[in-house]
Specification:
about 30% strand; alpha+beta; Aminopeptidase; 7 strands; binds coenzyme A
Length: about 160
């Protein structure tokens, strides 16, 4: 499998992130399931890049193609993480490598982070299994979304080995 590297998102990633986010699987997994307009996306993306409490990392293969993103939102006692892969690379076994690598990048940039959380629809089996594989555990849910947590101090993240 090609090596994957991580860098902070930049404005030139807007089109790729827009395509991944508007994909039907991705929309079904999101809090807002409606289609997003390009203008609305650019406005959101620009403010996300400028937000000191938000980090977006882009996973890049060695041929420079971007294959996914992870977003981190700093909260009072944790950082909430979400992931979105390019539809063309889903189901190929790289999700755990991308999530683990982005978390490592975030922890390097934010060494004080003690806990990570994730909010996942219970029907999103691939995402549930992905986060559990890295050591996240379910805290509870409201019927629509389940909340997961990983205490980095108490239980270090499990390793992620690609399946291919
Ligand atoms: C969620 C996402 C990152 C997962 O990546 P992926 O490449 O599709 O996932 P994988 O194929 O690696 O599957 C992850 C795990 O779920 C399992 N899985 C996937 N689909 C499944 C299904 N329908 N039923 C049962 N298990 C399933 C896989 O076997 C794998 O388990 P394993 O690691 O124990 O073998 C990707 O689907 C995506 O970007 N989805 C859209 C956005 C999204 O849902 N983000 C998550 C919100 S937090």
């Amino acid at each position: 499998m090609a090596e994957i590297e991580f860098r902070r998102a930049r404005l030139s990633d807007a089109a790729a992130v827009f395509e991944w986010r508007n994909d039907s699987t991705s929309r079904a997994a999101s809090v807002s399931t409606g289609e997003i307009s390009w203008a609305g996306h650019v406005e959101w993306f620009e403010s996300a890049l400028a937000d000191p409490l938000r980090e977006i990392y882009i996973a890049v293969e060695s041929d420079s193609s971007a294959v996914g993103m992870c977003r981190f939102d700093e909260r009072t006692d944790a950082a909430e993480v979400s992931i979105n892969l390019a539809p063309s690379v889903r189901g190929k076994g790289i999700a755990s490598v991308v999530l683990r690598g982005a978390i490592d990048a975030y922890r390097e940039d934010h060494p004080g982070t003690g806990r990570l959380t994730a909010v996942i629809r219970p029907s999103n089996t691939a995402s549930v299994r992905l986060f559990e594989r890295l050591g996240f555990t379910r805290l509870g849910g409201d019927g629509e979304f389940d909340r997961y947590s990983c205490d980095l101090a108490e239980s270090p993240l499990r390793g992620a080995s690609p399946k291919i």
